[in-house]
Structures are given as C-alpha cells and as structure tokens.
Design a protein that fits this description.
It is built from nine helices and no strands. With 291 residues, the protein is mainly α. The chain has one domain. Helix 2 runs antiparallel to helix 3 and helix 7 runs antiparallel to helix 8. Its main location: membrane. It is a multi-pass membrane protein. It holds the Pfam family RTA1. It is found in: Membrane.
C-alpha cells in the first residue's frame, strides 16, 4: 500500500509516467496523489463480493430480512468502486473515469450500510421492549431513514459533481463543499443514533443475557462505531480537499476507509440480524426467532 504523498501541483509516478499523447479521459497527473495499490483493491473486491453473496443468501433467501436490504446495496456499491480502483492501479492511474467511478461508489456506499444499521435498532426495540427506548421505534426509523436520504442525496450530488469537474479539468471546490455538507450531516446523524442506541442498550442490559443477544449487541455496537470512524475520516479528508494529506496518502485510505468498513461488514455477516434479531422489523414478542 503506497504511502507516498502527492504534491499541490499533482503527483506523477516516476515509474509510470503519464501516457503520451494524453487520451481525452487522461489527466497529466494522478489525482489520487499516489498510484493505488492493486493488491489492496483486488483484496477489497474479493472480500466485498463474498460479503455481498453472503448477505444476499441470508437476507433475501434464508431469513428474508427485507428491512436490511440497503446493506447488500451498499456492498454492491463497494464492489463497483473497488473494481474501478483496481483498473486505476493496474491499467492506467491517470484515467479520470476510473478515478471518478471509484470515488463516487466508495464514498457513497457506507450511506446504504448506515441505513441498514439504523433499521437494526428499530428491530431491537421491538424485540426487547419499546418502553426502554427514548423514542418509539417507528419514529427512530423514520428520523434516521430521512437523515440517511438527505445524506445520500448530498453525497451522491457532491461526488458526481466532483467527477464532472475533474473530467472537465475545472475547480471542484463547490462540489467538494456539497459532499462535505452531506458527510457532516451524516456524522451528526450517526452521532445522535449512537447516543440513542447507547441509552437503549444501557436500559435493557439486564435482559440481554436472557435474550441471547449479548454477542449480537457487541457486534452491532462495534459495527456502528466502525462506520462512524470511517465517516469522520471522510469528513476530515473532504474538508482538506483532494490535495490534502489525508487524500494523498493511501495508508489513511487503507486504515480509515477500507479496514473499518470491512470489519463492520464482517461483524454483521457473522451476526446477521435476520438470525439474531428476527425476520421482521416489527416483530412481536410471540414471533419465533431464528437462532
């Protein structure tokens, strides 16, 4: 994984000079600020394909947890993003199309993962007792689904506009600010979600052992914090801009984007909510839960 930082004027790999003549989709510098690691991109692609298949099997076939459907959608976005990043690493790191596709899909994928996590809390409240929640589960669900929709629109618009500006060799500052606003809103929303989740888990702590959900709650909590860490990183990175230290050193991408998302997805693949919590988000106490 490359750790060499880019310069304000752009990065040119001394071992991989820009193509000559430049194609219409080629930039004279590598916009990443480094040449992406093919090994990291390939590993990510393979892992997310495996996770995607596992979640399709568990969510759509075995447990039919349709409330968790945004999670595999997020994984599909990750796959597209890392395939494009692999093309940058192996075929042409100067190609703007590869950069734009990987940037758009990798940046926006965790929004869909977060939406899946939001639905888990609502299902847990139905399972463990609505009286222990600060807000009714339907209210929590609608608030955070709405927040996620707003964050999704802002981040998709910002990421798409950044791609357009980069393809036209124009200043992407305004588009970057739109993306920054979407990420800031998502950081705020997840922060509130973490507080509500912590209050609920504290109030039901005496029920957890009897319910058999102790391990799942630990996995759910860790996955939420990992996605939050990743979103905070993206917010800081976007605030710096594409030429900042966080954007132009792949070690930060690997440890604060790739690793947290992979670990969060791994946890919720092993402790899938369909198996641990229930097949319906509005489960009743009489529902037969799958173990």
């Amino acid at each position: 994984m490359s750790s060499s930082g880019g310069r304000r004027g752009g990065y040119v790999d001394p071992n991989w000079p820009p193509p000559f003549p430049l194609g219409k989709n080629d930039a004279p510098v590598i916009i990443y600020g480094y040449t992406p690691s093919f090994a990291l991109s390939l590993l990510a692609t393979i892992l997310f394909v495996l996770f995607f298949l596992a979640h399709i099997w568990q969510g759509a076939i075995k447990y039919r947890t349709w409330y968790f459907i945004t999670f595999p959608i997020g994984l599909f976005f990750e796959i597209i993003g890392y395939i494009a990043r692999s093309m940058s690493a192996k075929v042409n790191p100067y190609n703007l199309i590869y950069f734009i596709i990987q940037y758009f899909f990798i940046v926006t994928a965790p929004v869909f993962l977060s939406a899946g996590i939001y639905t888990i809390l609502s299902a847990l409240i139905h399972r463990l007792g609505r009286e222990h929640s600060v807000l009714p589960p339907k209210v929590i669900l609608w608030i955070f689904v709405t927040c996620d929709a707003v964050a999704t629109v802002a981040q998709i618009a910002g990421a798409a506009l950044i791609g357009v500006k980069q393809s036209r060799r124009e200043d992407p500052t305004a588009a970057n600010n739109i993306l920054l606003g979407g990420l800031a809103f998502q950081v705020f929303a997840i922060g509130i979600f973490i507080i509500l989740s912590a209050v609920f888990i504290f109030r039901v702590r005496h029920k957890l052992r009897a319910s058999g959900l102790t391990a799942f709650i630990a996995a759910f909590s860790a996955a939420t914090l990992l996605i939050y860490l990743r979103t905070c990183f993206r917010l800081a990175e976007t605030a710096e801009g594409l030429s900042g230290a966080l954007s132009t050193r792949e070690v930060f991408f690997g440890t604060l984007e790739f690793a947290p998302v992979v670990l969060a997805v791994l946890l919720l693949t092993i402790w899938h909510p369909g198996r641990c919590v229930g097949r319906s988000i509005s489960a009743t106490k009489n529902e037969s839960y799958v173990r």
